[in-house]
Each structure stands twice: as C-alpha cells, then as structure tokens.
Amino acid sequence: MKKAEDFSEWYNEIVEKANLTDKRYPIKGMNVWTPYGWKIMQAIDSHIRQEFDATNHQEVCFPLLIPEDQFAKEKEHIKGFDTEVFWVTHAGLNPLDVKLLLRPTSETAMYPIFALWIRSHADLPLKTYQIVNTFRYETKQTRAFIRVREIHFFESHTCHATFEDAEGQVKEDFDILAKLSKKWCLPYRLLKRTEWDKFPGAFYTVGIDTLLPSGRSLQLGSIHEYMENFSKPYEIKYEDEKGEHKFVHQTTFGMSERLVGAVVAIHGDDKGLVLPPDIATTQVIIIPVLAKGETETVTKSARDLHAALKAAGIRVHLDERDLRPGAKYFDWELKGVPLRLELGKRDMEKDKVTFVRRDTGEKTLKDRKTVVQEVKDELVKIASDMLARAQKDMVQDTVTVSSLDNLPEKMIKTGWCGSEECGHEIETKSDRNLLGIPVDGEQFSGKCVICGKPTKTPVYMARAM
Ligand SMILES: [Zn+2]
Asked: How far, in Å, is the centroid of ligand 1 from the Cα of 215?
C-alpha cells in the first residue's frame, strides 16, 4: 500500500510489517509490544526520564487501582472519564465493598497521598512523574499506538505554592518539550484548548498537536494548569511562612505511546519506517558487499569498521547473514535504520566507505580514515533534516481561510472572536474540532469567521486522526 494513496491502510500495514506491534492479542485495542517496538518506546522513555530528572522531577510509581470514592471527589473529572473506565468489582467470588477502577490517568490515585506528603512550604514544589500503563475504553476504531485501550503513558504531576509558580512549571514543560521534540524529529503546535474541550477538572489545557500527512491532526500530549481545582477536593494544603494554611496549585504534563505512532506516520515511507537517529535501536547498519575470492578481506574490514563505530558509542550492527546485499537493504530499510554503510572491494581499494541515508536515499563516498566522525556528523544532519522537513510540511499543510466553505483536508486557521457561541458554530459548519488558540502569541489580524468581529486571535482546527 502506498502512503500517498491510502494513508490509513499504509499505516496499519507498516506497523505490522516492521514488527513494531502484535495486534493478535484477543482484546481489542490492547496490543503486544514486540521487542523492536518496545526498544523504540524505551528509547523515548529514556529521553523523557533524562529531561525530567534534569529538571528536578522525581520518578514515582503509584498503584494501578483507584477506589471509586477517591475517583469521584473532583466532579468534572469523573464526569469526563465516566464512560471510559474499566471497573474491578470482585475479589475472587466476593463483590468488593468499594469498587475499584483501572487508572485512566493518575490524579485521583496520587492526590490523596500528596495531601499526606505535603505539610509546609518547605515541601514545595513537589515535582513527580511516572511512566505506567493507563486504561481507557475507547469507543472509536482502535489503531496501533494512536488509539488503544491500554496506553503506555507518561504523566508528570507537580504541586506549587502559588499560581505564578505553577505557571513557571508550565513554561518549563514547554522548554522540556522543545528539547524532546528535536530528538524525536516531531513538529507540533501548542494550542490552548477551548473551555468545552479542556481536560476534565483543569483550569486550562494546552494541547500538543502535530499534523499527519493525511491532513489530520494528532494530539501528542497535553499540559494542564489545574490551579486549586484538585487540591481543594483532595485537601492538598501547606502551611506558609506566616502559619496560614493554603491549597497548592497543580500542573500536569502527559504524553503517550502516540509518540511512536507519530514518528511512524510522519517519517515513514513506502519502503518502511524512517527512524530518527536518537530513537533508532540500530543507528547504523554495515553491509559487506562480497564478491568471489575476496570475502575474507572485505569481512575483516567490515568487522574492524563495526568495532570502531561501536567503541565510539554508536548503535551499529554488522549484517553478516548469507543473503544478497539487496535483500539486506530491503530488510533494514523496512526497519528504518537511519544510515547504511556499504563496504565492497572497490571502495576498500580507494579507502572509502559508501554512506546511504534512509531518509533521502542519498549516497556518498566517505574516507575510511575519518569514518567515525563522518558517521556522527551524518546522524546529526539526518536528525536536523528530518525535523526541518516535517516542520515545513506542517506549515505547508496549514491553510488560513476566511470562509468555512469547501475546506481542504488540512489544518485550518481562521479568525475567532473567542465567544463560545461562535466557537460551536465554527465546529458545526466546518465539521471539525477546534484545537484551540496558539499559546506563542502568534500575530493575527482578521475577522471572526462567524460574526465578523475584528480579532487578533486565530484558532486552529482539524479532523483528528
Ligand atoms: Zn464571533
């Protein structure tokens, strides 16, 4: 299946062919992580841990089950998740006194405990995160990594003394995201969700939205400011310097295995995956090109090259299988290995190695003597080119309109006065969801597409993947 012809089918096919997941598990939307898929997820998790540890967050791990009465304390929150939770009602043959649910997200698991952990201003800020599986009963059609019912999930939860401190955390989250997205080569927009689409219980929600080649948006994660909306019902209080008891201000940041789906969808092509070098399990594949009578010298040279790259910390593999080079190229292209090194007799005589980039197919000859540095440089270049291309595509696939007739299947930007009434009407007329207004203060000068009032606020919308 070709990506340009039927994106949806292409995606389903490629995740299976590249062996990222096994969808044969007998529960819909709960797939098996294969070794290859799990390694990619773990690489992403390790980037997340690195950035959050570096900003003084502490990793925690809370229980999977949440008692019904704890879950019900914040009214908006329970309303938002009511139809999506899985319940545990029995222990053995006995019905439970208090029903338990599988966490759809962990606010209601963590916050009763935060109320015990936090006593005084000296305990703040409390910055925690965990990487766990969460459960949501998706009613829409499931899709590997993108819409599943058991979700590999990252969530940070922070508590602060003041609203300003919490706002500072949201800004820090934006900075962390900017660093991570470079590693993952994923472009995104930060869009403040509408009041009617924000996270249940949040004061505001910022969606992290990317755009897929199909013209549909994919939410990669979200960052929330809760203010005191959860600390009040869960009684998370601290004593300030004057001995007064105050409620903490809270934020959260969530991302999921959708990041894997986004990398596949945005960068993959008709030959298979194209993995960003920081995510790739194997960054460099060496293929010896053997001809009769010279296999020994080429094999030795390939093994030396492998050892040199490995010693330099590069994730490299030497493919010595008894297969034709063409068959090996095909395999590693499907797996998305960013850089292929071909080594044959002719190259060796000239003291050269052939580099082939997975993302562009470009072939170049490099000096054998400086090959380690050349590989390092090439991987950096591949990553920055991949991000730049994806960013350019996202910008090109966003169109600004002043009428809602005949909208293309792209990300749409238009004027919005900000009123709820006009917002709903935009959604009805366009048959798209409003993603929200940009948080970066993007300049805009136009009119509300519904009421015609002049506005400096654009709103973005798209059909969701
Ligand atoms: Zn309006």
From this structure: 26
Ligand 1: centre distance to CA 419 (Å): 6
Q: What pLDDT score does 138 carry?
A: 87
CA distance 84 to 63: 19
* Cα 415 to middle of ligand 1, angstroms: 8
- Model pTM? 0.96
Ligand 1 centroid–CA 418 distance in Å is: 6
Taking a C-beta distance cutoff of 8 angstroms, is the pair 417, 175 a contact? no
The structure tokens listed for 404 are 């809602």
Find the mean pLDDT for residues 212-227. Answer: 97
Between the CA of 414 and the centroid of ligand 1 the distance, in Å, is 11
Pairwise CA distance, residues 141 & 11, whole Å: 14
Measured in Å, residue 453 CA sits from the centre of ligand 1 at 6
Can you give the pLDDT at residue 82?
86
CA 242 to centroid of ligand 1, rounded, Å: 47
- CA 450 / ligand 1 centre spacing (Å): 5
